[in-house]
Amino acid sequence: MSPTKDAAWSGQVEVFAYRRLAEPYHSLTIVAPDICARAAPGQFIAVRTPDDRSLLLRRPFSIHRVDRRPGWAGTVDIVFDIRGRGTEVLARARQHTSLDVLGPLGRPFRFPKEQTNCLLVGGGIGAAPLLFLAEELRGHGHRVDYILGGRTSEHLLRPIEAKRASLTVSFTTDDGSSGTQGVVTDILEERVRATKARVVYTCGPVPMLRAVARECARLKLPCQVAWEEVMACGFGACLVCAVPVRLERGAGNDEGWGWARCCTEGPVFSASRIHWERVEDAPAGVTT
Q: What one-character-per-residue DSSP string does 111-122 give?
């Protein structure tokens, strides 16, 4: 069954820990029991950057992990790289920093109805939602295997944690510094056959998502993608995070496609629903 989606919570939270991961990546753990109780893999939180009133908009971050401790001890982890002024300011947050947070937001991944083998495919910082997903899938009795890709070995997001959360992990890097030299789709078919995967979940830059979706369509495998997009409000009001999707013709829609709001109708979509021919190649980032 799929995780349930409850109403978002908004309020002040406290940073419990800051960690520097591999060279490009930062991690924040926030104390947020109300978000923990509602969160499902694939959802995100929207964070108002501290101590800078000129940064008016919240920044969206995929939920990387939750720790559902009892009482008021539940925590949420986010990971990010520095892509602009907002994430640069957030990277300076330390223990006891207060953050204004809204979440969880968006639609989560859908779980298989029966126990099955699941292959998770992630690229760079875009792989952030997969650790939470892997742990929840395993908790529901599903087999989990990973493909993790990056430009270099340092761009593989938390490879040791990926190993702990899955039965097998395969790595690809552009420069060959870890695993297979190449991209995730170079080994996707082989890993599908080796793991007997029946569903694929993928997160990463848009060109990677397109390639994985194309390969899954060829292999006749269902695929869910977590879309990376710049968001302003996080709850569907501003319309800046539109994603082209396929729609049935009729009822005034003669072209067979339209727009979906990533923040409310996503960020998780069925790969077959995305109108890939109308998606630009330039990868969008979930942080700024």
A: PPSS--EEEEEE
